[in-house]
Design brief:
Layout: H1 2-63, H2 65-78, H3 85-98, E1 102-108, H4 114-120, H5 135-138, E2 157-167, H6 169-180, E3 186-192, E4 206-216
Length: about 220
């Protein structure tokens, strides 16, 4: 009787050991694999959802691509990708002719960056007295960079423009206003307009100077 009980106990222990080894060697790894697969699937589904949302955004943007292209074309008119100074001069000449004014001189200096323009600007409170400052700085004139070796940056750069206009003071002021409302951006930095001192000289032609910048953003 004791032997039978002992055999039963041993058989139970062996069965428990087999079950334990089976769990460790077979079932537990499979459960870990299944858990990792579930985690990976959740990550893939989250990534797919992000891609789906991104695709929806791209589709909406593509639906507006013609409007975006039109906006870009308008901006390219304001700040083109090339200097096109002959085109700017032609447009300025048309505006001048509409006010019976002649552009007698036109010159453009070497392109500069906005940082170079700011560095060349005179300080708000110069250390030297105004009467000893150079005339060009006192008048706020554009620095002459024609002889320098300035390298144009890869983003935005400005081209200094100088024009001499021959016509009446009122017409020159009208041209300045029209140029700043023209399609292409032209920033007037200084202007010297000769105004008549008496009524008899009103409307008489004189030479006026305009300095400013046109801008270019290369592709």
């Amino acid at each position: 009787m004791l032997t039978v009980r002992l055999r039963i106990i041993v058989a139970g222990l062996v069965a428990a050991a087999i079950l334990t080894l089976g769990w460790i060697a077979g079932i537990a790894p499979q459960l870990e694999i299944a858990d990792r697969a579930h985690t990976d699937r959740a990550a893939v589904e989250a990534q797919n959802e992000a891609h789906r949302l991104r695709l929806q955004t791209l589709k909406k943007q593509f639906d507006r691509i013609e409007l975006t292209r039109a906006d870009l074309a308008d901006l390219r008119g304001v700040i083109p990708a090339v200097s096109d100074l002959p085109g700017f001069l032609d447009a300025a000449s048309v505006i001048a002719a509409s006010h019976s004014v002649t552009i007698s001189e036109f010159s453009a200096a070497e392109p500069v960056s906005p940082a170079q323009i700011q560095a060349a600007s005179p300080p708000l409170e110069p250390e030297t007295p105004a009467e000893s400052a150079p005339d060009a700085v006192a008048a706020g004139a554009i620095p002459d960079t024609a002889g320098s070796t300035v390298t144009a940056p890869d983003t935005l750069f400005a081209i200094p423009i100088n024009m001499t206009l021959t016509g009446s003071a009122d017409s020159v002021l009208a041209i300045i206003r029209d140029l700043q409302h023209h399609t292409r951006l032209f920033l007037v930095t200084s202007a010297t307009v000769v105004t008549p001192t008496d009524d008899a000289a009103a409307g008489a032609s004189s030479d006026s100077q305009i300095n400013g910048f046109v801008y270019v953003v290369p592709h």
